[in-house]
Amino acid sequence: MRIGLYPGTFDPLTLGHRDIITRAAQLVDRLVIGVAINGDKGPMFSLEERVAMIEAEVADLRSSLGVEIIAHPFENLLIDCARDVGAHIIIRGLRAVTDFEYEFQMVGMNRAMDDSIETVFLMAEARHQAIASKLVKEIARLGGDVSKFVSPEIRKALIARLGQRP
Question: Which residue range(s) make up the domain with 72?
């Protein structure tokens, strides 16, 4: 069984993330979405909320693509998480050259720790490449329309979290 791990903070899950999930799910038999527990980043949504959002957002993909997709919280090293879930592929999304520089370093370190786990880079569709969760949160905080960047349900969650009216 081909198991892939797509890690991230997903605070919140964006349409760019969903695009990568859709593409990655076509490459593996089981896709584990590793939801990073990263208190240093000061997430807007709790781990439980992020996991629930991901589960709800990928429910349709499970049936339409016929692939098992699960959300899996993790707080350890990415390479250890990959081992824990039995993944032989780590899937990373790229938006720009600056992402690649960081990811290039990460791949080197991960391969030094376990060279049996490959990293595959996927780029979201062009219309989703500029989307970053950090920017989506900032736009929402300032009352902007985030409907081009997140699903309607995630948009509602952002508005509710910020105490705004739709």
Answer: 3-127
